[in-house]
Write a structure and sequence with these properties.
Layout lengths: L5 H27 L1 H8 L5 H17 L1 H14 L2 H19 L5 H4 L2 H29 L7 H29 L2 H6 L4 H4 L1 H12 L6 H8 L7 H5 L3 H36 L4 H29 L2 H26 L1 H9 L2 E5 L15 H12 L3 E5 L7 E4 L2 E2 L5 H10 L11 H22 L2 H8 L5 H17 L2 H12 L6 H18 L10
Parallel strand pairs: 1-2
Antiparallel strand pairs: 1-3, 3-4
Helix pairs in contact: 1-5, 1-7, 1-8, 1-11, 2-3, 3-7, 3-22, 3-23, 4-5, 4-7, 4-22, 5-7, 5-11, 7-8, 7-22, 8-15, 8-21, 14-15, 14-16, 14-20, 14-22, 14-23, 14-24, 15-20, 16-17, 16-20, 16-24
């Protein structure tokens, strides 16, 4: 067990946390600027399709995280914790800055989105080694009875990265006008990562290697083949599967729902002005930072498993009510119109493809496309073959001869679709809803770094915890914005994307309840 050295421990926590903030800033800046990146790199496609393609590219960065976990997990278990996450933060900073100098589609054609994807893949590869390195490094310095508290700052740092991305975007949009922002100002947040990289490297170079790794190296016990050893027996494989499906998958969909899905919901469905939506989500995230540290600290006293299980159960019960609360507070006129004057589209062929680049092939699909672009909820009614498409709002037939006619009918039915800024009182309600989702995220995420470190032996710890964590967060969480928005686009229900979160959390709850052991207080060999 690591001894208590206040000065050393504060430096370890500060350096690991700040590095994590900077690295996640680099990753989240892409998600924060998804809408303008769609304009710059995918302008040749329909706006809905362009937005989905940007989210798919966002997910692609997560898709390679398991490869980064394997590569940097191997290096971390073979060469040491410190130098491995020096490499990860450097790769992340360079890849992010590169996005800031990429040519746009207008300048380079199809080469532009290809280069963008390459940068995203490099970011994902780097991030695959970051979390494991920071978590292992801090945990191996921490006393057993404070391990949850120490490592909780890493979890809070992930939100710190998201907040920093929002703050830099807001500052950038303030110092340049809208025309300049669209033309070149969007590059500023990406180039800002060069400064963050320099600060992060300077801080992390002050660190020494973890005492656990130093002891292993001195005793000649460093793993020769960390990846092979991680899969050497069924008990080790089973524990990695529990970490994947019970921990990583569940906590990450809650976290991304609290951040990105809430942001896109406010911007696209609740029709809140983009900057105001970023501010509201950012303020909610600031207040949510406390929950991660609270539940990390609490897990040292009541155990790791209990808050995670309770958090999962509460998420399943509360997620839909919380999003309905946000919708009512953000745009009560729109919420009232959806409830009292529902939109029903009928036709014999109402297929809708969000990725269609040349328009929808059927007349009914064109109606659905109009509604989808406006974030209007609708219900589809299939009618016998040959029946022409029709639309009813609140049971009344609507003239669908043109998009303008549909707009007039929606406005007459009370649909407030122009973007606006809610008054202070209602904005605070939205913030409170986001803080509540942040509370659920803190319950499930706060104890996890300590838990994952405690699940695996020191020889293969970096590799064994990184692989399931990054498969879970990379695939279940990284593709959440794309999957949830795709579900919304296909169903016409702005709340339907939440079912993805509920389904993954329900799976995680079952796995955690049955197979996850309690690890709090375990001595790290």
């Amino acid at each position: 067990m690591a001894g208590v050295d206040g000065k050393r421990d504060r430096l370890v926590i500060l350096a690991s946390s700040l590095g994590t903030v900077f690295e996640w800033y680099d990753f989240f800046i892409y998600g924060t600027l998804a809408a303008i990146i769609a304009q710059q790199f995918f302008p040749a496609v329909d706006p809905t399709a362009g937005f989905l393609l940007v989210l798919a590219t966002f997910g692609a960065g997560f898709g390679v995280r398991p490869l980064g976990a394997i590569l940097f997990g191997y290096l971390g278990d073979r060469l040491g914790r410190k130098y491995t996450f020096l490499v990860t933060v450097t790769l992340m900073g360079v890849a992010t800055a590169a996005v800031g100098v990429l040519p746009t589609y207008a300048q380079a054609g199809i080469a532009a989105p290809i280069l963008l994807v390459i940068c995203r893949l490099a970011q994902g590869l780097a991030l695959g080694g970051e979390y494991g390195g920071a978590a292992v490094y801090v945990a191996e310095h921490a006393p057993a009875n404070r391990r949850g508290f120490y490592t909780s700052f890493i979890q809070a740092s992930v939100i710190g990265g998201f907040l920093l991305s929002l703050a830099v975007v807001l500052a950038s949009t303030t110092i340049v006008d809208q025309a300049a922002w669209t033309e070149w100002g969007w590059r500023i947040p990406f180039l800002f990562s060069i400064l963050l990289l320099a600060v992060s490297l300077w801080i992390r170079l002050k660190l020494k290697e973890s005492p656990v790794f130093q002891a292993m190296k001195a005793g000649g016990e460093v793993a020769a083949h960390p990846l092979r050893e991680s899969f050497a027996s069924w008990p080790r494989i089973r524990m990695m599967l529990v970490a994947l499906f019970g921990i990583a998958a569940g906590l990450t969909v809650i976290w991304y729902t609290a951040q990105f899905q809430a942001l896109y919901f406010l911007q696209n469905t609740a029709r809140i002005e983009d900057t105001a939506a970023r501010l509201i989500v950012g303020i909610g995230a600031v207040f949510s930072l406390f929950w991660f540290i609270l539940f990390g600290w609490l897990s040292d006293r009541i155990g790791r498993k209990k808050p995670i299980v309770i958090g999962y159960a509460l998420t399943i019960a509360l997620m839909f009510p919380l999003f309905h609360w946000m919708a009512g507070a953000a745009n009560p006129e729109l919420a009232r119109a959806m409830a009292t004057n529902p939109v029903v589209v009928s036709g014999s062929d109402c297929s809708y493809d969000p990725f269609a680049t040349k328009g929808q092939p059927t007349a009914c699909g064109k109606l659905l496309d109009i509604l989808s672009k406006k974030g209007v909820a609708y219900t589809k009614l299939v009618t016998p073959d040959g029946t022409p498409p029709a639309m009813r709002i609140g049971g009344r037939p609507v003239n669908t001869s043109s998009p303008e006619a549909v707009d007039r009918a929606l406005a007459e039915a009370g649909y407030k679709l122009e973007k606006s800024v809610p008054p202070l009182g209602r904005s605070l309600e939205i913030v409170l809803a986001i803080v509540t989702i942040g509370f659920l995220s803190g319950m499930t995420y706060g104890p996890v770094a300590a838990l994952l470190v405690e699940l695996f032996p020191a020889r293969i710890r970096y590799t064994s915890m990184s692989i399931p964590y990054h498969i879970g967060t990379g695939y279940f969480g990284g593709f959440l914005p794309f999957i949830s928005q795709y579900i919304v686009a296909r169903t016409g229900d702005p709340f339907s994307g939440i079912w993805y979160t509920i389904g993954v959390v329900a799976m995680a709850l079952v796995v955690t309840l049955i197979w996850l052991p309690e690890t709090a207080g375990k001595k790290l060999e």
